[in-house]
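Ticket #4471: structure export looks truncated?
Reporter: QA, pipeline team
Priority: medium

Steps to reproduce: submit the single chain below to the structure queue and open the exported record.
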Amino acid sequence: MALRHLIHQTRRYSGNFLLRSEGYWRLGCSQSRFIKNQTNVSNAAVNKTTNLQDQIKDKRNEIQDFIDVKKSELQDKLEDKKDDIKEYIEDAKVELREKAQEKSTEIYKKRKEAKTRVILNLAERSLDYLKKYKTVLGDAFPDKFVQTYRIFSTGTRQLAQDVQTYARVKDTLVNSIDKQKSHAKLSTAEYEVFLRLPKDAIRVTPVLLISAFPFAQNVVFPLALLYPKLFLSSQFLTSQQKKDVLLSNARHQQEIFPLWKEELIRCTDMTYEKDPELMHLRTILKSGQQLSAQEILDLRPLFELNGPLDIRHLTRRHDKLLASFHRVWYIMFPYTYLEWYANMLWRMDQALDREKLRFSPEVIRSLSVQRGLNPELFSEDEQLQYLRHWLDISAQLKYKDISLLLHLPLFLKRKPIYQQ
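Actual output as written to the record:
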């Protein structure tokens, strides 16, 4: 009995133990599943968060790309608008410049026309005065065969013709549309009158005006005949007096020549020391070397407009010597008058080329002196040869090279050379 009771107790305790163990095992499994579920939930939440973050990031990038595209489009539109505004402003500026230029041209033309009208009116009055001046001569010199009457009568008539020529040339050059064609129609004689008459008028006008007063002829005419080169113009001079004046001008040029050359050397020494072309020119001038036509033409870059030896860039002393050599009158700034004279001289060269230098010896001498050659030292053939060389070079020059044209006497070959 005791044994059976022991076995029964043992079985009961064993059954309870197994039940408890099974309960513990089931509890452990439940906890494992809970932890596993919790981990899965956490991982799912992390994955969801990551997915949301990626979506937000993608959305941000998408929005940023959209903003960048829109910004780029706006910048392009802004640049296009800026370009349109700039073009509009430039067009407006060009339009304003054109209007200002047209207005300036219109004002310039009106001034020029007014100046021309004044000159033509003055020329017309001068002609009327010169026509009436014959009466003054007739009263002063009843005997029409006296020499004094002939001088003033012939001179007055020639002066009247020159005034008409000057007025016609002035009107042609001012009012023409095509300047080139207008210059092509003018002759050498017309250019000569156009260049000479203003100086002649300044010299002889006081004599003609004062002599119109009663009894003034008794003083004015003898004084004018005593100093004809001072008080009378070329129209009133005899052939011998004209020749004397011409040779006097040539001797004056011969005196100016070395001073002018020395000043040009000084100008090349003073500036642009490292310019090889100027250094070469300085060497040529110092050595006294005579240049061929092509070598002279090779100097054009130095003398062209805005070049180092352009008329407007020379020293005042150089301009004054240049004006003195070419007998160009000026008031304050020599270069403005030199530029005008050089242009007329260049146009006159074209007329000489058209007329093939078919002139009398007196005209050849005058043309030679005008271009820096002393006819006392050269025969007529040598003068013609010099003028042909001058015209060969002048024909290859343009308006921008007119400074070189004025300096040609320094470079053209000639013998004997002026004493330095």
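Status: closed, not a bug. The export was complete when the record was re-opened. Leaving a note from the reviewer for reference: The chain has a mean pLDDT of 79.
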